[in-house]
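FAQ

Q: What does a record look like?
A: Structure on top, sequence underneath. For example:
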């Protein structure tokens, strides 16, 4: 590493569990963030500041004035811009060395299949069930660890689904695609602004642990946070051996 890099990342390098080796792993890593809004903003800013070498962003939306209450990477001056472009500008203002690839389109199966082979970790920062299932299927198919987050009103969730582990559930094991969910969005239900910062920061933490090799992940756990009462709960999650999604990919990825 160069002297200026050793200085920039010194507070991470000072951590015995991280060190120069962990920083070098992070600097060579590629993270994919799907969703450049409330969760994607803090997650992307922290990954960029930590020096993740390549970060890809997927989001088809534009910055709206109603986003500014919580989507901290965007600004009044960038209202109307593509969210991926606005988020890229915020990331590179912090760390111009980070390579940022932008995809200003919906995360359909074709785009995910294009991106997956080269990434090391995926962060699901979206807000709808159908897209989450699509991301999960792609992660299971390509054996990529998935850091999933959600936030609505005062409640947030974060989990890691890593099908590289034989006993680990995927998102569909816990939230089956056949289940009927009534879609609830921030636009109609509201969301406490700092809540997305808490959950998005936790997603960044889990991603950095996976990339650096530090500590243990939330694999097999679902953490739930209620900001109104400042309460945390952790629920154990188990693999569904009859899962219609990950069971079709397990044999080839674990062989």
């Amino acid at each position: 590493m160069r002297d200026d890099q050793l200085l920039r990342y010194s507070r991470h390098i000072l951590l015995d569990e991280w060190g120069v080796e962990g920083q070098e792993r992070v600097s060579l890593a590629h993270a994919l963030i799907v969703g450049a809004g409330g969760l994607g903003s803090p997650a992307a800013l922290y990954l960029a500041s930590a020096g993740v070498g390549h970060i890809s962003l997927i989001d088809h939306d534009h910055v709206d004035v109603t986003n500014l209450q919580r989507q901290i990477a965007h600004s009044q001056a960038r209202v109307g811009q593509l969210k991926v472009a606005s988020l890229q500008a915020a990331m590179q203002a912090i760390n111009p060395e980070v390579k940022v690839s932008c995809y200003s389109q919906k995360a359909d199966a074709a785009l995910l299949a294009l991106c997956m082979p080269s990434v090391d970790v995926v962060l699901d920062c979206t807000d709808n069930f159908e897209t989450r299932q699509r991301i999960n299927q792609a992660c299971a198919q390509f054996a990529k660890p998935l850091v999933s987050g959600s936030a609505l009103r005062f409640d947030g969730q974060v989990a890691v689904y890593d099908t590289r582990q034989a006993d680990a559930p995927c998102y569909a094991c816990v939230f089956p695609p056949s289940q009927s969910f009534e879609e609830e969005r921030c636009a109609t239900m509201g969301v406490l602004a700092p809540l997305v910062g808490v959950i998005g920061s936790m997603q960044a933490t889990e991603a950095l642990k996976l990339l650096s090799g530090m500590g243990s992940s939330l694999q097999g756990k679902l953490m739930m946070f209620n900001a109104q009462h400042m309460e945390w709960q952790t629920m154990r999650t188990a693999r569904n051996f009859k899962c219609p999604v990950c069971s079709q990919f397990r044999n080839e990825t674990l062989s």
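Q: Is there anything notable about this one?
A: The mean pLDDT is 94.
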